[in-house]
Specification:
The complex is a heterodimer of chains A (481) and B (589).
Chain A lengths: L5 H14 L14 H7 L4 E2 L26 H11 L13 H20 L8 H13 L20 E2 L2 H16 L5 H4 L5 H10 L5 H17 L4 H19 L5 H13 L7 H11 L12 H14 L4 H10 L6 H16 L3 H19 L4 H8 L5 H9 L1 H18 L3 H17 L1 H43 L6
Parallel strand pairs in A: 1-2
Helix pairs in contact in A: 3-4, 3-5, 4-6, 5-6, 6-9, 8-10, 9-11, 11-13, 13-15, 14-16, 15-17, 16-17, 16-19, 17-20, 19-20, 19-21, 20-21
Chain B lengths: L12 H8 L4 H9 L1 H23 L5 H11 L16 H7 L5 H15 L4 H16 L4 H8 L2 H4 L5 H15 L4 H17 L2 H16 L4 H17 L2 H7 L1 H8 L4 H9 L1 H25 L4 H9 L1 H6 L6 H17 L4 H8 L5 H22 L4 H9 L1 H8 L2 H15 L4 H18 L1 H15 L5 H18 L1 H14 L6 H18 L1 H15 L5 H14 L5 H16 L4 H13 L4
Helix pairs in contact in B: 2-4, 3-5, 4-6, 5-6, 7-8, 7-10, 8-11, 11-12, 11-13, 12-13, 13-16, 13-17, 16-17, 16-18, 17-18, 17-20, 18-21, 20-22, 21-23, 22-24, 23-25, 23-26, 25-26, 26-27, 26-28, 27-28, 28-29, 28-30, 29-30, 29-31, 30-31, 30-32, 31-32, 32-34, 33-34
The chains are: A mainly alpha (481), B mainly alpha (589).
Chain lengths: 481, 589
């Protein structure tokens, strides 16, 4: 339909007043907006316990630890751990209320006990602790409420069994941090399989759980040297699957946060394995649609790597350029932000190696019709260190940037961008006035040369296509060879 | 013939390669997409000696370019000189099969599979199979993943020693330590089993299948379920119980809902693959469990399969199994807490009536249909209504009509316009099944009310609906029931309603025929040419163009022509435009 001007506007008012009087149209039009949909969702909590038992659970109450003599405490501690292996169904809010409360208070007691007591950690306690923790935290995560759960828009589904789960995590962390804790004994029980299941839990939609997991994994990485390589490899696998298979994993930011501090501790020179991780895993992570959710942590990891080993700058920047977003301006702004962080720590010798491809991209960003992208790129000229690098290399950079800048100064729709571009042009003029004048003078002839080249290309392809046509006809026997 | 050599002076390879190297990705992409043209210009010899080595060496590019390249190379056999030389294409495709980006790799594998067929058995062993081995033992997971898709295409055409090697490589990849590779292997397990000799299926495949089905990662286990279908089809009935069923039973009870979901989703295929006896003894209880699963996703997937599962039950005791085992679960699903489960069930439940026959339907299914027709979720009601035809065949729709009406009325006034739209689409079907009397009495008012809905899409669909109703009930019915109401809206104070009159006329004129159009509709249209809203006037011009072919020449010349001429000199440019268009299209001169 043709978009109409004033006449239809007044008519439209007539329509809306008429609409309220007709019987079938007086209901609100429920365009399925997300906010509406969310309000209707009843289940904001979920939990997945397959085949939880139908019978009510009975636990025999045990005396408090502080009420028994010290020599009996280790024995009672084990008994309590065993009781806490029982898992309750929290989706049924009415079942086993008394026993749920009993387990909650027992867990609380255990948390206090491992924090303050001494001499409780007998060798027999280790397997029981790990068993209790495993029984409680390891489970298949429930399906996400909405198929296209968008972590930026949707509220996360919270874990229903959190009242118990939180205490179990709390207990486990106190256990790992306890002064009596001996990794040499614990490593028999906290093994690869345990870590693997722990890592899978990072996909939990509940941010509270991911936060606890982060601390747990960090402690394990710190205390179990034998598991470090394994943990890094499994995180690799999670990321690769996330990038190339599912694009869905809730705990990427948390894992990157842990990696940030792991990278910080890498010894120099960096092992090939770590470099491969940077180039083959961290850089491709930039391609994921939900980048904004973990970009800060990712950029931190990248910069950590470059501070360790500046020679990695070239592959990193080339990688970013390869994956540069084509259709998502929001991501482009993030890339530009990260690039500035990298340029902040770049060594001049490295800068020279990548300046050409880099500024070709920046020149494209500067002339983006999206003003936020153009603006973000132009802000580089406010950065003193970057300015000094540009100045040193102005004979290379100016010719790359010039035509974009010149064109935008004439035709960008946004006045703020035009003003910024004028400043940049002015800076270039001051840096290298001879070159600037030459480029201004040759601007027109350069454009013409480009047009001519373009035309030649078209002709080449036309000739090639004619050839193809002719051969096609010949092979069909229409034209004799 | 594409084999002739190109003209060197005209197309030096440097120029062409310049094109493939252009700085602008888009231009590079365009050149790659025309790679066959370039090859044609070079001729087969230089394509082999110059172009392919260049392509192999410069594989580092944007994934989009690589994707186009991988696709092109699959159709390149003639351009390198036919099957005799097809192995020249292997080096670039091998590199492409190792890149990270999944779509590129998959395309490279697809092209490799395609050209594998063009290799002679000797070339397959000399060139192709070594490539598969290299990929299978690559360092980085990507090449091993790609290798998984290539075993089955070369296996049938190589010697038995090479076959043994291939089986060994496949075995190794099934226990690879990266889950990505195990997933790739698991997803190709069924395909690979199909090309193996039966003895090896029993000795090799079953152990791999069992291992993958108990992998520590559920993403691997669920792929084994898919393979289960192919494997079970290959084995003789007497071996199924010992070789397949233990694993399948375990999958149906897996602790991960994703695996159980997969079992539910593939249930009909599994059922066909294992045959009637095992279905009766094993799958019926498994299916019951899936229908009662604790995760809604699993229940919904199983609910979707209820009809197919029942249909495929062995006929001798189908009815008994359904009545005693399946129906009780179905009854519970009708009042499930999750709307996806209910709506999945509603989309198939009506199909049970044909299987169970008239008496059972009335006694057992009808109460369920009625309950679902009253469900709080509109999608459930819609799904029931959209499948009314199945029930109609068995018990006739009258049984339902009393409950149907309130359900339809409620959907017709639903707050969500998409729901209203959906029910409109079923109106012609309902009208056909309920008959003209019932329709006039109960549904006609609804159909007219939609014409003044405040959402355009609804008004449009309502117009289209009227046309279909007229096609069903005839012109006379239209003249008595619809046309007066439609024409009445021409005087409505709201211009959108006046336009709806015009849209209805556009849709109805043909179905109503010349007489009604000329005598009743045309005068109204012509009168509206004086409307004060320009939108109405240019729609008059459009309507006249539309109904012109239905009118006789006399009416066109004496009535339509003067009005269009007047509109052609309207002060509004759009009115002018559409009037002139109508004048030029209609035979007025």
């Amino acid at each position: 339909m043709v978009v109409r001007g004033d006449s239809s506007a007044s008519a439209h008012r007539a329509m809306s007043s008429a609409a309220t009087t007709s019987p079938s149209v007086d209901k609100v039009d429920g365009f399925s907006r997300k906010s509406v949909r969310k309000a209707k969702q009843k289940r904001s909590q979920s939990s997945s316990q397959f085949r939880s038992q139908d019978k009510p659970i009975e636990l025999t109450p045990l005396p408090l630890l502080k009420d028994v003599p010290a020599q009996e405490q280790p024995e009672l501690f084990l008994k309590k751990l065993q009781q806490c292996c029982t898992v309750f169904d929290f989706m049924d809010t009415l079942s086993d209320l008394k026993m749920k409360e009993y387990k909650r208070s027992t867990l609380n007691e255990l948390v206090d006990y491992v924090t303050v007591s001494r001499g409780y950690l007998t060798e027999q306690a280790y397997p029981e602790v790990v068993k209790m923790v495993s029984h409680n935290i390891f489970r298949t995560l429930p399906p996400s409420d909405s198929n296209e759960f968008d972590p930026e828009e949707d509220e996360p589904t919270l874990e229903a069994s959190w009242p118990h789960l939180q205490l179990v995590y709390e207990f486990f962390i106190r256990f790992l941090e306890s002064q009596e804790f001996q990794p040499s004994i614990a490593k028999k029980y906290i093994d690869q399989k345990f870590v693997l299941q722990l890592l899978e839990l990072f996909d939990s939609e509940d941010p509270r759980e991911r936060d606890y997991l982060k601390t747990v994994l960090h402690r394990i990485y710190g205390k179990f040297l034998g598991l470090r390589a394994f943990i890094r490899k499994q995180i690799n696998n999670i990321f690769l699957r996330f990038v190339y298979e599912t694009e869905h994993f809730n705990g990427v930011a948390e894992l990157l946060e842990i990696l940030g501090s792991i990278i910080n501790g890498f010894a120099l020179p960096l092992k090939a394995e770590h470099k491969q991780f940077l180039v083959k895993v961290l850089i491709p992570l930039h391609t994921v649609r939900s980048l904004s959710l973990f970009h800060a942590q990712l950029a931190y990891c990248i910069v950590q790597f470059l501070e360790k080993d500046p020679t990695l700058t070239e592959p990193v920047i080339r990688g970013l350029l390869k994956f540069w977003p084509k259709t998502c301006s929001q991501k482009e702004v993030m890339y530009l932000g990260e690039l500035e962080e990298i340029l902040d720590v770049i060594e001049p010798t490295q800068f020279v190696k990548i300046q050409e491809p880099l500024f070709k991209q920046i020149s494209r960003c500067v002339s983006s019709p999206h003003f936020q992208v153009a603006e973000r790129a132009l802000y580089y000229w406010n950065n003193e260190y970057i300015m000094s690098l540009i100045e040193e290399n102005s004979s290379v950079i100016l010719p790359i940037m010039f035509s974009s800048l010149y064109r935008i100064s004439k035709e960008h729709w946004n006045p703020a961008i035009v003003a910024l571009v004028y400043n940049v042009l002015k800076a270039f003029m001051e840096m290298n006035s001879t070159l600037f004048d030459e480029l201004t003078a040759s601007y027109k002839s350069d454009r013409q040369r480009e047009k001519k080249k373009e035309k030649e290309r078209e002709e080449l392809w036309k000739k090639l296509e004619d050839l193809e046509l002719k051969r096609g006809l010949r092979s069909d026997g229409i034209i004799p060879t | 013939m594409a084999g002739a050599d190109g003209d060197d002076s005209l197309y030096p390879i440097a120029v062409l390669i310049d094109e493939l190297r252009n700085e602008d990705v888009q231009l590079r992409l365009n050149s790659i997409k025309k790679l066959s043209t370039i090859a044609l210009a070079l001729g087969v010899e230089r394509t082999r000696t110059e172009l392919l080595p260049f392509l192999t060496d410069t594989i580092y590019d944007e994934d989009e370019v690589l994707l186009a390249l991988a696709e092109q190379l699959g159709n390149f056999t003639m351009l390198v000189g036919g099957p005799e030389y097809v192995h020249c294409l292997l080096p670039p495709l091998e590199s492409l099969a190792t890149v990270e980006e999944t779509v590129v790799r998959d395309k490279a594998v697809e092209s490799l599979r395609k050209i594998s067929q063009e290799h002679s058995p000797v070339d397959l062993e000399v060139h192709f199979e070594p490539l598969v081995k290299r990929l299978a033992s690559g360092d980085w997971f990507t090449s091993r993943t790609s290798a998984c898709g290539l075993f089955s295409v070369c296996y049938p055409r190589v010697s038995s020693t090479v076959k043994a090697e291939i089986r060994q490589h496949f075995r190794t990849l099934c226990s690879d330590d990266t889950p990505m590779v195990r997933r790739a292997a698991a997803s190709k397990l069924g395909e690979f089993a199909k090309v193996l000799e039966l003895d090896y299926v029993k000795s090799d495949i079953i152990s791999l299948f069992t291992a993958l089905a108990s992998d520590e990662q559920d993403s691997v286990r669920l792929l084994a379920v898919e393979a289960c279908v192919s494997i079970a089809t290959l084995l003789p009935q007497e071996d199924l119980e010992t070789l397949v069923m233990p694993t399948l039973r375990q999958a149906a009870e897996d602790k991960s809902w994703r695996v159980r979901y997969m079992v539910a989703d593939k249930f009909s295929e599994l059922q066909k693959a294992v045959g009637p006896e095992i279905t009766k003894n094993d799958l019926v209880p498994a299916f019951q469990n899936l229908l009662k699963d604790c995760e809604a996703e699993v229940r919904a997937a199983a609910a979707n399969k209820v009809k197919e599962f029942c249909e495929n039950l062995p006929e001798d005791n189908r009815e008994q199994i359904i009545m005693t085992h399946i129906l009780p679960c179905v009854k519970e699903l009708v009042s499930d807490t999750n709307q996806h489960v209910k709506s999945a069930l509603a989309s198939v439940i009506m199909g049970l009536s044909t299987i169970l026959g008239k008496d059972n339907t009335i006694e057992h299914l009808l109460p369920l249909f009625l309950a679902q027709l009253k469900d709080e979720c509109p999608e459930v009601r819609l799904n029931i209504i959209s499948n009314l035809d199945c029930v109609n065949e068995v018990i006739g729709i009258r049984q339902l009509s009393q409950s149907l009406l309130p359900a339809i009325v409620e959907l017709a006034e639903d707050a969500k316009w998409r729901v209203r739209l959906a029910i409109i689409e079923y109106m012609p079907l309902l009208a056909g099944q309920l008959g003209v009397e019932f329709f006039d009495e109960k549904l006609n008012t609804l159909c007219m009310a939609w014409l003044i809905d405040h959402v355009y899409a609804i008004r449009e669909a309502a117009t289209c609906n009227l046309m279909k109703l007229v096609e069903k009930f005839g012109a006379e019915w239209a003249q008595n029931t619809i046309v007066p109401k439609v024409l009445g809206m021409a005087n409505d104070p709201n211009y959108l309603h006046r336009m709806t009159t015009l849209f209805c006329i556009n849709a109805l004129s043909e179905a109503c025929g010349q007489e009604i159009t000329t005598k009743q509709m045309l005068p109204v249209v012509l009168k509206m040419s004086n409307d004060q809203v320009a939108n109405v006037r240019f729609n008059v011009a459009k309507s006249l163009q539309k109904i012109g072919p239905v009118l006789d020449n006399n009416a066109l010349q004496t009535e339509v022509k003067p009005v269009l001429e007047k509109l052609a000199s309207d002060q509004d440019m759009d009115v002018k435009y559409f009037a002139q268009e109508a004048i030029s299209v209609l035979p007025l001169a």
